[in-house]
Amino acid sequence: MRTLIATAFISLDGVMEAPGGEPDYRNSGWTMTSVDFDPAAYEMKGTEQDEATALLLGRRSYQAFSPVWPAMTEEFPGYNAMPKYVVSTTLKDKDLVENWGETTILRSTADVARLRASDGGPISIHGSATLVHSLQEHHLIDRYHLLVFPVLLGAGKRLFSGAELGAQKLKLVDSAVYSNGIQKNVFDVLR
């Protein structure tokens, strides 16, 4: 069985929207404006890239990342080389970019569950709020890699589903606090 890891930059109040900048969100780029830069706080991102064997994205995140990440050869060499899976009911093969490696379209959470049950290493989920919510609701996420920024953003897309769910217990397996106030929290989902 593979491990599904949801990784995110989030505000203290759980917002994950537009951390690096997106049009039309009032706090766009908040990860760059809310704290001083401390490279140690981002080391987890390199570790994630080294450990992941595949990338799982929702349609909107795929459409945001696919025109940009392939050209970021120094920042994302691991992600650019690994297989990608996009969960979408509307995307067609002709909509996939040609310069970002092997990409497979999955149509449902059942397809994700089959992927998770297959042989192979960890699968990293970036962005993809709607997908993450659906996977949480179907108890498919195994781990959370969170960089929590000391900022309150109020409105915005949140990492955690607002659906009425039974309690999901988590175990903190790694944590750190950095000079700029960012907290690293790695949680395994207990089953």
From TrEMBL:
<feature type="domain" description="Bacterial bifunctional deaminase-reductase C-terminal">
    <location>
        <begin position="2"/>
        <end position="183"/>
    </location>
</feature>
<protein>
    <submittedName>
        <fullName>Dihydrofolate reductase</fullName>
    </submittedName>
</protein>
<dbReference type="InterPro" id="IPR050765">
    <property type="entry name" value="Riboflavin_Biosynth_HTPR"/>
</dbReference>
<dbReference type="InterPro" id="IPR002734">
    <property type="entry name" value="RibDG_C"/>
</dbReference>
<dbReference type="Pfam" id="PF01872">
    <property type="entry name" value="RibD_C"/>
</dbReference>
<dbReference type="InterPro" id="IPR024072">
    <property type="entry name" value="DHFR-like_dom_sf"/>
</dbReference>
